[in-house]
């Protein structure tokens, strides 16, 4: 099945400095940078009351928000105003540049997974010392280097955890209000995976509250499925689930740590594959739901994991109902294209071959060669006389390997908004070279 966009983008775009500063000032608990502070602690560069540097204390280095003349206004009101203005501008930029799919740039969030878990009934975010997270978990490695002692994490407080209100409906309604109805199909929204917090924590739930991992993940999957269906009912037709945690099952350091602690990685992977399957089961056939599996993208191009998709590719491709897989292939840490040999004919891969981790521009010809290499691997793996041309037609698209700003503070090394647009234009030109005329469909 051909993917919906031959030139795609993963989700987040660099925020204007005024939006970054407005969010910093708003001190929204649900949107704390990388979910890092205790309730009631101040944001910014100062240390907390205990004198310890917490995750949100990492300075952003951005300029102050412009004086709007209403300094007495509520910070959340000012944030919403700045946010709406920035989204309108970035949608206009995408339209004028012919960039697809059209997104909000995730400007309504401080981090890519933000707002969903906070919206659930029977679930809360609370400050958690890092020692309560799984040792060696890739997300925590840079935090430890930065001197972070803890971060917010999500825990169930009732059984069942359930979908009480939509986390993203208002965001989608605002985006679609900026477009004619015949362009809604050119849009995409992203959502987090059901097991986002479960995989990171040593004790992800109170045993008196939930009797098993399966029970909790089942409720979280049901909540995510309802969220996706809510967006579909309001006219959205392309959804991307972001789950970099799955790539950590390919990371040798994380694997070694789990083995040392007698963690059954095979069982964990089965749990999360089932949670994904349950989350996207029984959705309408005209809804495209894909999954993005990168290796993390912290500010300044900091990666979180490395290792080939070989360990998980066959199971992910064949045991989940996703029709599109957004995969990272911009650097050696991702391995080569060999795992694509497992891709079924009816599914598609969006090759993340343009990096967002640095401002260095790739060669168009070199990128074309890499896409052709991937097509050859797919065709050979599918057998039955399949050719490169068959794989290009049915199974491939291109994109950056990740968003440009997974949290609201900064992007890759040397990345500017101008360079960001140049990167997206490069993706567009690459797609036009390989699939001429695709964007005029």
From TrEMBL:
Pfam family for this entry, one: Meth_synt_2
GO biological process, any: methionine biosynthetic process
Domain Cobalamin-independent methionine synthase MetE C-terminal/archaeal: start-end pairs: 216-407
Compositionally biased spans, kind Basic and acidic residues: 44-57
A single GO molecular function term of this UniProt record: 5-methyltetrahydropteroyltriglutamate-homocysteine S-methyltransferase activity
SUPFAM superfamilies for this protein: UROD/MetE-like
Annotated region described as Disordered, given as residue ranges: 30-72
InterPro entries (alphabetical): Met_Synth_C/arc (IPR002629), UROD/MetE-like_sf (IPR038071)
Full protein name: Cobalamin-independent methionine synthase MetE C-terminal/archaeal domain-containing protein
Species assigned in the record: Cladophialophora yegresii CBS 114405
Lineage: Eukaryota, Fungi, Dikarya, Ascomycota, Pezizomycotina
């Amino acid at each position: 099945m051909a993917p919906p966009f031959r030139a795609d983008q993963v989700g987040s775009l660099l925020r204007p400095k005024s939006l970054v500063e407005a969010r910093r000032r708003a001190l929204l608990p649900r949107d704390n940078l990388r979910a890092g502070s205790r309730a009631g602690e101040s944001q910014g560069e100062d240390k907390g009351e205990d004198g310890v540097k917490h995750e949100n204390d990492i300075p952003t280095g951005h300029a102050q928000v412009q004086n709007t003349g209403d300094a007495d206004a509520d910070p959340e009101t000012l944030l919403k105003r700045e946010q709406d203005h920035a989204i309108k501008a970035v949608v206009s930029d995408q339209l004028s540049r012919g960039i697809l799919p059209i997104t909000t740039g995730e400007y309504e969030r401080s981090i890519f997974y933000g707002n969903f878990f906070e919206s659930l009934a029977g679930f809360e975010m609370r400050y958690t010392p890092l020692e309560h997270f799984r040792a060696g978990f890739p997300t925590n490695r840079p935090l430890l280097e930065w001197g972070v002692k803890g971060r917010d994490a999500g825990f169930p407080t009732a059984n069942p955890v359930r979908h009480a209100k939509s986390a993203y409906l208002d965001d989608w309604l605002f985006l679609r209000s900026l477009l004619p109805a015949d362009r809604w199909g050119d849009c995409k929204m992203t959502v987090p995976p059901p097991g986002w917090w479960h995989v990171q924590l040593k004790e992800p739930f109170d045993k008196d509250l939930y009797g098993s991992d399966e029970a909790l993940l089942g409720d979280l999957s049901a909540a995510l499925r309802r969220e996706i269906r809510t967006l579909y009912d309001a006219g959205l037709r392309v959804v991307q689930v972001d789950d970099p945690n799955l790539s950590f099952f390919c990371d040798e350091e994380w694997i070694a740590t789990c083995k040392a602690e007698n963690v059954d990685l095979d069982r964990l992977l089965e749990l999360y594959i089932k949670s994904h399957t349950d989350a996207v089961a029984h959705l309408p056939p005209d809804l495209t739901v894909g999954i993005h599996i990168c290796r993390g993208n912290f500010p300044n191009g900091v990666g979180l994991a490395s290792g080939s998709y070989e360990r998980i590719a066959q199971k992910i491709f064949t045991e989940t109902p996703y029709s599109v897989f957004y995969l990272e292939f911009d650097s050696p840490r991702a391995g080569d294209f060999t795992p694509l040999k497992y891709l079924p004919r009816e599914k598609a891969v969006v090759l993340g071959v343009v990096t967002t981790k640095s401002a260095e521009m790739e060669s168009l010809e070199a990128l074309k060669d890499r896409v052709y290499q991937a097509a050859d691997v797919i065709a050979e793996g599918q057998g039955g006389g399949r050719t490169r041309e068959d794989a290009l037609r049915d199974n491939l698209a291109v994109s950056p390997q990740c968003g440009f700003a997974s949290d609201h503070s900064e992007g890759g090394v040397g990345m500017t908004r101008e360079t960001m647009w140049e990167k997206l234009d490069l993706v567009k030109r690459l797609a036009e070279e390989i699939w001429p005329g695709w964007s005029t469909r």
